[in-house]
Amino acid sequence: MTDRRGFITKSISAAGALVLNSSFISLPKEKLTELNIEALKKTPEALASDEDFWSQMKQAYTVSPNIINLNNGGVSPAPKVVQESLARQNTYANEAPSYYMWRIMSQGKEPLRENLAKYAGVSPEEIAINRNATEALNTIIMGMTLKAGDEVILSKYDYPNMLHAWRQREQREGIVLKYVDLKLPSESKNELVKIYADQMTAKTKVVHVTHMINWNGQIMPVKEIADLAHKKNIEVVCDGAHTFAHIDHKISDLNCDYYGTSLHKWLCAPIGSGMLWVKKEHITKIYPLIPNDTPLSDDIRKFENLGTRSFPIEQAIGEALNFQYSIGNERKEARLRYLKDYWAKEAIKMERIRLNTSLKSNFSCALAHVGIAGLEAGEMESKLFGKYKVHTSPTKWEALNGIRIAPHIYTSTRDLDRLLDGLKYLHTL
Ligand SMILES: Cc1ncc(COP(=O)(O)O)c(C=O)c1O
Fold first, then answer.
1. Is 214 in the pocket of ligand 1 (CB under 6 A)?
2. Is residue 24 in some structural domain?
3. What is the pLDDT of residues 314-328, one digit of tens each?
4. In the predicted model, is pLDDT for residue 123 greater than 70?
5. Any atom of ligand 1 within 6 Å of the Cβ of 131
């Protein structure tokens, strides 16, 4: 943690960065700088409810003024600075793709790796840049050496693409999948850890755990599960698709062995960008999904043998990181949690509403799931969009039946008032 003076100095430069980077257009520059400097002196919690500050933030984006997008969990929009960087680099690449991409832009790859690693609190020699969380986690799931009878612990609430990968290995190689029975939402770390602990046996080789469950936003105690697993020589794969640049944390805090995330979700990097982290000592033994000439090398870059891909997308990730730094993790997390609380605390006053997400900060942040007794997920989603143009994700999965609401930092409380109007209307059906 920086000291207070350091914080204010940083905040003032961050305010400058916001003005420069984010193309705020509604106020003269001097006024904005003044406003931001004052706002950034507040604690993240106090700033979280400062609609003036966050309404400027909205202007860093090009989101539709007519459709309220509350499905930022699927994929998030990139701010203008990121879109512009991408467009610039794309134009540049198309002047002579093989020259500009492979000889010029490629020089930005190692600095990007270093910047991502620094942000994530790990070594650059453990970071591979790729296209999404599916690719990152499939690299690990498919690349591990396991034999028939080896056990893997996972949950039916993990993301389908990862479940499919594990199930393919079960089908082809006879590994054994053991599912934990999660009751969501949960507000007990001990209970959650115990559910995983109870499935661990002498044959268990891997625990797969999703840091924030996409269906209802449940935050899982990854570190506690990993601490226990390691005592039994079990490795931990963490799906960080929903926590990277959402919850203020470092990958190193989680004590897992492997971590994959998309960067086009909460970081707001260009669509089609992702990242894999592998603990240095494990790199050698993981076979890459797309092999290179030395599949058992200890160089993390062996996981980047993806064939031709967009260097402009990759290079514009750096701009998304700058944007994230200019807001600050703590401020972003506090605002996101405030937005969830804003609508959810009001919604639960309605009789038939079923909030399937905890309101405690250790167990959730922006993403939440809500159902209405007697209504199906699809009907809720289509009626809400049809009448109110509020876009959400219909989520019927295991015991959940309703819609997933995921605001982002450009979401205003006015947008959420409209969501609440929509929920009240659904409540009358
Ligand atoms: C928990 C979780 N993991 C992984 C993914 C896959 O992300 P992508 O489609 O970017 O690969 C998602 C996507 O929503 C997700 O919710």
1. yes
2. no
3. 999 999 999 999 999
4. yes
5. no
Residue-level pLDDT at 337: 98
Ligand 1 pocket, mutate which of 138, 141, 159, 271 (most atoms under 8 A from CB): 159
Q: Which domain holds residue 391?
A: 332-427
Q: Which two tokens stand for residue 391?
A: 């876009």
> How remote is the CA of residue 264 from the centroid of ligand 1, in Å?
10
Q: What is the pLDDT of residue 31?
A: 61
Do 178 and 317 sit in the same domain of this protein? Answer: yes
Residues 155 and 280 reside in one and the same domain = yes
Neighbouring-strand partners of residue 261: 275
Strands 368-372, 400-405: parallel, antiparallel or unpaired by DSSP? Answer: antiparallel
Q: What is the rounded average pLDDT of the residues 167-179?
A: 98
| Residue 35: per-residue pLDDT | 66
Counting atoms of ligand 1 from 1, which one is nearest the CA of 262? 10
Question: Burial code of 49-61, b = ≥16 C-beta within 10 A, e = fewer?
Answer: bbeebbebbbbbb
Query: Distance between CA 148 and CA 157 in Å, rounded?
Result: 24
pLDDT, tens digit (0-9, with 9 covering 90-100), for 9-60:
344 344 444 433 333 344 455 666 666 778 888 999 999 999 999 998 999 9
Q: φ, ψ for residue 250 (rounded to 5)? A: -110, 150
Residues 264-309 pLDDT 10s: 999 999 999 999 999 999 999 999 999 999 999 999 999 999 999 9
Tell me the three-class secondary structure of 342-366, residue by residue. Answer: HHHHHHCCCCCEEECCCCCCCCCCC
Q: So what's the pLDDT on residue 28?
A: 56
239 lines ligand 1 (CB under 6 A): yes
| 235 and 160 inside one domain | yes
Same domain for 357 and 225: no
Of 297, 321, 345, the one marking the end of a domain is 321
Q: Please identify, by atom number, the ligand 1 atom nearest to the C-alpha of residue 74.
A: 14
In a domain, 98, yes or no: yes
Q: Whose CA is nearest to atom 16 of ligand 1?
A: 214
